[in-house]
Design goal:
The chain is elongated, with a radius of gyration of 23 Å. The strands form two sheets. Strands 1-2-11-3-4-9-10 form a seven-stranded antiparallel β-sheet. Strands 7-6-5-8 form a four-stranded antiparallel β-sheet, with no helix packed on it. The chain contains two helices and eleven strands, in the order H-E-E-E-H-E-E-E-E-E-E-E-E. By secondary structure, it is an alpha+beta fold.
Length: 172
C-alpha cells in the first residue's frame, strides 16, 4: 500500500476514483448475486441441515433439494399457522415420470420413494397426493422424515415451477 502523503494531488484523485469505482463494481456484483441467490435457515425437523444456500436460477433435477412456497391449505394453516415459510424437499420425480401408489407407498417409475401416513400427528385424515405422469414444470417432492408434508399428500401435491424459490445446497 502506498502512503497517502507520498501521492501527488492528481495521483490521490485517481486513487480515490479507483477506490470508488471498485466499491461500485463490488456493490453491483453483490446486488446481482442477491437477485439470484439467498441464504435460508431451516426450522423444520424434516431436513437434517439448518442452513442452506439457495440458487434461484438453477432448474431443479432429480435428487436436488428445492425450496418452495407451499400451496394454501386449511390443513397446513392448522399445523403451521397463517404465515407459512418456505418448505424444503428433495426432488424424487420430474416431468414425464410416472407416479403410482400401492398400499400408501408412492412409487416413481416403479421405485418406492415414500410412504404416506393415514393421519397427521394430530389425528386428522391425510388425503393421498396426485398420481399419473408428472406434468412439465412440476415435481414430486418428499423427504425421508415420516411426518413430512410433501407430494404424497393432496394438501401439497406436485410442486410446479411458479412455487419454487430455488435449488438448495446445505451449508450447515
Amino acid at each position: 500500500m502506498i502512503p497517502a502523503d507520498s501521492l501527488s494531488p492528481r495521483g490521490a484523485r485517481y486513487a480515490l476514483l479507483l477506490g470508488v469505482a471498485s466499491l461500485a463494481a463490488g456493490l453491483s456484483a453483490l446486488s446481482s448475486w442477491r437477485d439470484h441467490h439467498a441464504l435460508l435457515i431451516n426450522a423444520s425437523g424434516s431436513l437434517p441441515n439448518w442452513a442452506f444456500f439457495i440458487d434461484r436460477a438453477k432448474v431443479p433435477g432429480r435428487g436436488d433439494l428445492i425450496f418452495f412456497d407451499p400451496p394454501a391449505s386449511t390443513l397446513l394453516t392448522r399445523h403451521f399457522g397463517a404465515h407459512l415459510g418456505p418448505f424444503g424437499k428433495r426432488v424424487y420425480g420430474i416431468a414425464g415420470d410416472s407416479v403410482t401408489t400401492q398400499r400408501r407407498f408412492f412409487l416413481v417409475n416403479g421405485h418406492i420413494v415414500a410412504k404416506a401416513k393415514v393421519t397427521t400427528r394430530r389425528g386428522e385424515p391425510l388425503a393421498l397426493g396426485p398420481t399419473g405422469v408428472i406434468p412439465r414444470g412440476c415435481y414430486f417432492v418428499a423427504t425421508p422424515h415420516p411426518d413430512s408434508f410433501d407430494s404424497r399428500y393432496a394438501a401439497i401435491g406436485w410442486i410446479c415451477r411458479p412455487r419454487i424459490l430455488g435449488v438448495g445446497t446445505a451449508i450447515l
